[in-house]
Amino acid sequence: MAYDTIISDWNGTIIKNRDEKPILETIAIDLFKASIPFHLVRAARLLNVKAELESLYWQGRQDTEFDFIEEMFKIYNRGVINGLPISFIHRSVDRYAARRETQQKIDRRILRPIRFCHQRGKTTGILSSGYGYGIDRILTVAGFRRYFDFREANAFKHKGGRAIEFLLNIYKNKPQLLLRALRRRNLDEKKTVYIGDSEDDEGCFEIARYPIVAFFATEELKERCASRYKAFIPRDEKDLANYLRKI
């Protein structure tokens, strides 16, 4: 094998969810349930958040220049997250990770070949704009967390055990962070496989010697990345596993 490292995106690559909206919704719903009937003011605030988000979803569909992700987190940070105990967030995410429907969204066609490579001594990691604790919990329930040597993702800023906001430190800057992650671990991009699914991963495809477009990616992106970056487009799990054995 000509590579030493496999780094994968998370949202849209290992899990079908394109963003962290399902986790945020779970936290908000759990908080709403905990607010009835004794915290009616908080419950009313959460209903206002729901209305804001519905308006946001409509606006995002109409405006191609609109940054839905940033605006979504602003609403959740202001109306749900700020002041919430981190322990409450973790319990909510733990329940979400263990749900059958969450586990069914994981793409084991990606995870099993990564596990095979890790067991044969390759360094494996995740670079994601998603929620790090959520990634860890979902993979732990699925039995795959131990097959990743590192995970770099976003987290909640907190103080005194309470959340302040969800920080988007990894967002639209993945190429720079990929290089930083490789340098910090003395890894070589010329011996690196990178697996991703979206436009945000294209800069990483340009850096890594062996770019791979994930199964959940659109056909348009697959065609563009195959042409522009010579990315490998696996047909199925067997095709991906064979490619990783041969390069």
Which outline best applies?
Answer: elongated
Strand order in the sheet with the most strands: 4-3-2-1-5-6
**Average predicted local confidence, pLDDT:** 92
Q: What is the CATH third-level topology name of the largest domain?
A: Rossmann fold
**Number of helices, where a helix is a run of at least 4 consecutive DSSP H or I residues:** 11
Total discrete domains? 2
Q: Which structural class should the secondary elements be placed in?
A: alpha/beta
String of helices and strands: EHHHHHHEHEEHEHEHH
Q: Please mark out the parts with pLDDT under 50 across 5 or more consecutive residues, or reply none.
A: none
The CATH architecture of the largest domain comes to: 3-Layer(aba) Sandwich
Question: Rg to the nearest angstrom?
Answer: 19 Å
Approximate strand percentage: 15-25%
- Characterize the main sheet: 6 strands, mixed
CATH superfamily of the largest domain: HAD superfamily/HAD-like
Helix content: 40-55%
Report on the structure:
With 247 residues, the protein is an alpha/beta fold. It has two domains: 5-17 and 106-246, HAD superfamily/HAD-like (Rossmann fold), CATH 3.40.50; 21-101. The chain contains eleven helices and six strands. The protein has helices at residues 21-35, 40-62, 68-81, 86-98, 100-103, 108-119, 132-142, 174-184, 202-207, 219-229, 237-246, and strands spanning 5-8, 123-131, 150-159, 162-167, 192-196, 210-213. It has a six-stranded mixed β-sheet with strand order 4-3-2-1-5-6. α9 links the parallel β5 and β6 (210-213). α4 (86-98) packs parallel to α7 (132-142).
